[in-house]
TrEMBL record:
Keywords: Membrane, Oxidoreductase, Transmembrane, Transmembrane helix. It comes from Mucilaginibacter gossypii. GO terms for molecular function: oxidoreductase activity. It comes from the Bacteria. This is Short-chain dehydrogenase.
Length: 267
């Protein structure tokens, strides 16, 4: 019997690709979206309604899900979005919303399903972090902070769930082509001191999105994490991610200089 897998944010991007791929491979896949009615007709797997910003919708997920399935083998915490903007120019309210969805929403949804996992005495929780959960870059301070927070939380949770045979994994992709650039929020700044840097970083960000590769490697890494019996905690994904991590840990000044050089070269 192939496993049963819940993929949050399965209407678009990485979630949609991985849910389709798992379905093709014979897994029983259930996805989520804030508006399942908009997407269900095009999808070969069932979509449930979940909004990570709505406690009531998260609180009803367990019952809804287990009326469809008997056991849940894997939860893929994929849903999330991106707030772009220079840190000082981003209203704190936007930062709080970023945490409400990416961090708190993901934690609340995980907590809703943990009693079922504990009862089963097995399960796997795979969360989409980001390389920006391990590395900081300009123009994404709140996004990076929300992903760093997930790293810390799930690193601790992994120890606590080990006794129940529940594995905890983070995936940390670099930039890949999805809707995340368009579906997110941009904080438009107006502090004059930042004018030149803002111009360069927005152009650098746009060219990073334009040049980003298709997300096939993320899907492959997710499949690997799903199939691995004893997965490790961290799965960085993307060309050059191991070099970036190496520089960040052992040669931070070189890492910083190379990032600033690329931003300054942007027009
Ligand atoms: N693309 C990248 O370069 C990249 C890199 C590193 C990490 N990631 C992470 O990968 C995950 C997927 O991103 P993506 O690039 O595939 O983006 P995407 O194409 O914009 O897809 C985002 C998904 O999240 C769902 N979602 C957004 N806000 C939600 C909310 N409040 N409640 C419930 N669902 C919500 C959306 O579903 P509905 O709109 O249907 O509700 C959608 O299915 C995110 O966690 C992102 O941070 C992406």
């Amino acid at each position: 019997m192939k496993h049963t897998i819940l993929v949050t944010g399965a209407s678009s991007g990485i979630g949609l690709l991985v849910a389709n791929k798992l379905h093709q491979e014979g897994y029983q896949v259930i996805g989520t979206s804030r508006s399942p009615e908009k997407h269900q007709a095009k999808l070969p797997f069932k979509l449930l309604a979940v909004d990570l910003n709505d406690d009531r919708s998260i609180a009803s997920l367990g019952k809804q899900l287990f009326s469809e399935i008997k056991t849940l083998d894997v939860l893929i915490n994929n849903a999330g979005y991106l707030v772009n903007g220079l840190a000082e120019e981003t209203p704190v309210e936007l930062g709080k919303q970023q945490f409400e969805t990416n961090f708190w929403g993901t934690i609340k949804l995980t907590n809703e399903l943990l009693p079922y996992f504990r009862r089963q005495k097995h399960g796997k929780i795979i969360t989409l972090g980001s390389l920006l959960g391990l590395v900081g870059l300009p123009y994404v301070a709140y996004y990076a902070a929300s992903k760093h927070a997930l790293e810390g939380y799930f690193k601790s949770l992994r120890f606590e769930l080990n006794q129940f045979n529940i594995k905890v994994v983070m995936l940390e992709p670099m930039s890949f082509k999805t809707s995340i650039g368009e579906s997110g929020t941009v904080a438009e700044g107006n502090i004059r001191d930042y004018d030149l840097f803002r111009k360069k970083i927005t152009s650098y960000t746009k060219s990073t999105f334009d040049k980003a590769p298709e997300p096939a490697p993320v899907v492959a890494a997710l499949l690997k994490a799903v199939k691995e019996k004893n997965p490790t905690f961290s799965y960085p994904v993307g060309k050059g991610s191991s070099i970036i991590l190496l520089l960040q840990h052992f040669a931070y000044k070189i890492f910083e200089k190379s990032i600033l050089k690329s931003i300054n070269a942007s027009k």
